[in-house]
Amino acid sequence: MARVAASAGVSTALLHYHYDTRQRLLVAAANVLLQTRQRARAVAAREHRGLAALDAIWQALVAAARDGTERARVELNSIAASDGELASRLATARSEERAMWLAVVPTLLRDLGAAPALSSEELAALVHTTVDALGTQLALGEDPVSARATYDAFWLLLVSAQGRERS
Q1: Which of 4, 34, 49, 140 has the most CB atoms within 10 Å of its CB?
Q2: Secondary structure of the chain in the HEC alphabet?
């Protein structure tokens, strides 16, 4: 707690006042990290259309790998195995992100000229799982060129499997 307080430029007493245990501080930090990560992905998916949205989502993944956000998420998942409160927060974050993908993927596929053949829930689960896996790979040192090829192949397969939007 003393090192965290020193890094934040606050007194240890102030840190203990707001977070009486290291576990509560960890959960609060995890909350900020997960919200920031989700917001970056949502902005990328919502503020762009078609191929530009795919590129923006990719850039959000790369940025999160570079700034340590994805690595921190991987480590939080490890800690959560023995921390029920953190595990609960991570489960909530997964649900929130799944809901975000549920809202944006059908529109994104239509922008790419595909008519969704799978249910919105199935598409959201597929995209969420794949994007998370690629984020983890990048965090663990995967070559970004190779990971980008996997990302592009995923979207190409997804769009082609969905069929064509009728004009």
Answers
A1: 34
A2: CHHHHHHHCCCHHHHHHHCCCHHHHHHHHHHHHHHHHHHHHHHHHHCCCHHHHHHHHHHHHHHHHHCCHHHHHHHHHHHHCCCHHHHHHHHHHHHHHHHHHHHHHHHHHHHCCECCCCCHHHHHHHHHHHHHHHHHHHHCCCCHHHHHHHHHHHHHHHHHHHCECCC
